[in-house]
Write the structure tokens for this entry.
Amino acid sequence: MERRKFLTEMGQVTAAACSIGFLASCSKSGDTSTTNPGTGGNTKLTANLSTELTSVGSSKINGNVIVVRTATGNTASSFSALSLVCTHQQCTVAYDASDNDFKCPCHGSEYSISGAVTQGPATVALTKYTVSINDNTLTVS
Ligand code: FES
């Protein structure tokens, strides 16, 4: 086989293989779209309100996410859900129930119960999450 003809044919074979791979990846992507994205894939924490978070000031942690009951009643506005990652240099803040705030042990930043900075050096609020309640199940997402 002539060198030029060989290279031309190899180029066509490679292009065809890439096209098949591309189409296969498109098909794979299409397969994932059949799953329902609204079925809890973004859930960070859940709590059973008949047994957990029953008193004002009580809290529950899952990983770097905390939810604190701030008021009576089982409505979303009775809870504050936040990241425990300090926005200064990513230390883990601690919930102080007696002061009703969050304190960072690394450099002294403090945050209100809603996550706002009340003392630096941090300048950015804690990440806030969404609380939803369905019957007695609280979900943070
Ligand atoms: S990491 Fe929290 S104050 Fe510096």
Remarks:
- The beta strands are 45-48, 59-62, 65-69, 79-83, 94-96, 101-103, 110-112, 117-119, 131-134, 137-140.
- The chain has a mean pLDDT of 80.
